[in-house]
Design the sequence.
């Protein structure tokens, strides 16, 4: 957008003079950058990064730091392949418009030293305190969740989802379920195309 400023002049005695002028200033919008949600990978799993931005003109530049594991740190969407000893790495992306305006964001990538797998907590406490309220699978090295299911002690299916990082809140049709042991089953496809299936029990604590 543009903004017009009007200028008037006074002499040294403070008297206004019959003079007026204007200047038009082109206001460049703030750059909003989103590097993505924090995520997890296993060693050597390709991770597609992407700097999502507001409208950016041609000639804008991208710089990811550190460059560890990146195929091109000066790309909007580099691929990271991590083989590091650290448990995690934080990437920061700096976007610069031709006029010099900058936007910045970061993403934390946790690196597991395991094979691709689905990790399920052994218990959860859906009491509304914001801590461990949702039972959900933690996919590591996983490309697609095929299903995550919860069964009660009678073998009845009471919850199912295919959505990534979604889970059960301990309710069925809005009714809180009793404390006790429930059965889970989860199936997913890892980044190499292999099917992974997990089944076990979890304790609901109220």
Sequence:
């Amino acid at each position: 957008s543009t903004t017009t400023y009007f200028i008037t002049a006074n002499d040294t005695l403070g008297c206004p003079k019959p003079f007026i002028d204007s200047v038009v200033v082109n206001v460049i919008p703030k750059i909003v950058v989103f590097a993505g949600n924090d995520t997890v990978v296993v060693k050597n799993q390709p991770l597609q990064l992407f700097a999502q931005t507001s409208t950016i003109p041609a000639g804008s530049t991208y710089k990811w730091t550190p460059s560890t594991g990146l195929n091109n740190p000066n790309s909007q969407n580099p691929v990271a392949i991590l083989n590091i000893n650290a448990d995690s790495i934080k990437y920061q992306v700096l976007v610069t418009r031709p006029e010099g305006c900058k936007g910045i964001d970061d993403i934390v990538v946790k690196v597991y030293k395991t094979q691709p797998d689905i990790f399920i907590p052994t218990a959860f406490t859906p009491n509304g305190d914001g801590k461990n309220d949702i039972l959900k699978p933690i996919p590591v090295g996983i490309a697609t969740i095929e299903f995550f299911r919860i069964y009660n002690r009678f073998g009845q299916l009471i919850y199912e989802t295919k959505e990534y990082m979604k889970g059960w809140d301990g309710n069925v049709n809005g009714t809180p379920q009793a404390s006790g042991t429930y059965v889970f089953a989860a199936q997913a496809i890892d980044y190499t195309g292999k099917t992974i299936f997990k089944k076990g029990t979890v304790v609901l604590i109220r």
